[in-house]
Amino acid sequence: MRYSGRFSKQCGAFAATAVLFLLAFAVPPSRGAETAAKPGATRITLPGFFDPRRRPDRPDPSRALIQIRFIATDDFPPFSFRGADGQVMGFDVDLARAICQELAVQCTLEVKPFDALIPALEDGQADAAVAGIAMTPASRAKLDFSDRYFRSPARFLARRERGIGAITPETIGPLAVGVVAGTAHEAYLKSFFPNAALRPYPNMDALRAALLRGEVELVFADGVQSALWMNSAAAQGCCAFVGGPFTESRYFGEGLAIAVKSGNDLVRQSINYALSQLWEKGLYTDLYLRWFPISVY
């Protein structure tokens, strides 16, 4: 099963190819922080995915890794997708490269169809999948997962000129709220915003068009999908996030983690150590700012 925050395919199909990470990680180190911003930019709040009180142990030098064979898909923007030159790129790709740089090991990344990821880990064809495999009881029975490194929240969007402020079950009552029918987002609103005037739409394109036309005053949808759209020409600079974020696991999943074969503690623990170091050194912050110019939090 795919993580509930996986996004609609935006790139064409490509044959699987392996990309060997040999280049040094180019982002300069800086101090980790919960908030950060580039000079002259709006200050951005970063989610605290990594508990500073929990410090994973450094990998045992006597069992040092020689390499990590990562696998991913190419239909998961902005995490892993094909750029204009056909090369695989994205947040997950840069994160995998940074993990390998931190651990000082050689890595490869191979693109596979999503349905082939778990079999590749189970058969020993790969060491780690950075591809949005949902953390569920069924997947946990087959795989182990690293610490969580990302979670896509649900967010409300509104047209900028509306000037909508705080979002609460009380204040949302008179507002028309658009949502894609049959989704976890619709179920969440029915449970926690029972007074909302819901207007279901068949898909995201219809929902966004309704917001642009003014048929609805709010849209409730996935934060990353929404940020990508707001940063595109199609949105016409119309909208901004209001209220939230909302991250309830029962509706929106547990987030993103790197999957490894069950029992592969050396790779899992090494990845956890690298993730904690990337956060402390501020490298995770740099990656977040690079790939999420409109923060999803």
Helix and strand run = EEEEEEEHEHEHEEEHEHEHEHEHH
Mean pLDDT: 85
Name the beta content range.
15-25%
Q: List the total number of helices.
A: 9
Strand order of the largest sheet: 1-8-4-9-16-10
**Named CATH architecture of the largest domain:** 3-Layer(aba) Sandwich
Structure description:
- The structure is a single chain.
- The chain is of the alpha/beta class.
- It folds into 2 domains: 172 residues, Periplasmic binding protein-like II (D-Maltodextrin-Binding Protein, domain 2), CATH 3.40.190; 99 residues, D-Maltodextrin-Binding Protein, domain 2.
- Helices cover 27% and strands 22% of the residues.
- It has 9 helices and 16 strands.
- Strand 6 and strand 7 form a beta hairpin.
- Helix 1 packs antiparallel against helix 9.
- The radius of gyration is 20 Å and the shape is elongated.
- About 12% of the residues have low confidence.
- This is Transporter substrate-binding domain-containing protein.
- It holds the Pfam family SBP_bac_3.
List keywords for this structure.
single chain, alpha/beta, D-Maltodextrin-Binding Protein, domain 2, 6-stranded mixed sheet, 5-stranded mixed sheet, 16 strands, 27% helix, Solute-binding_3/MltF_N
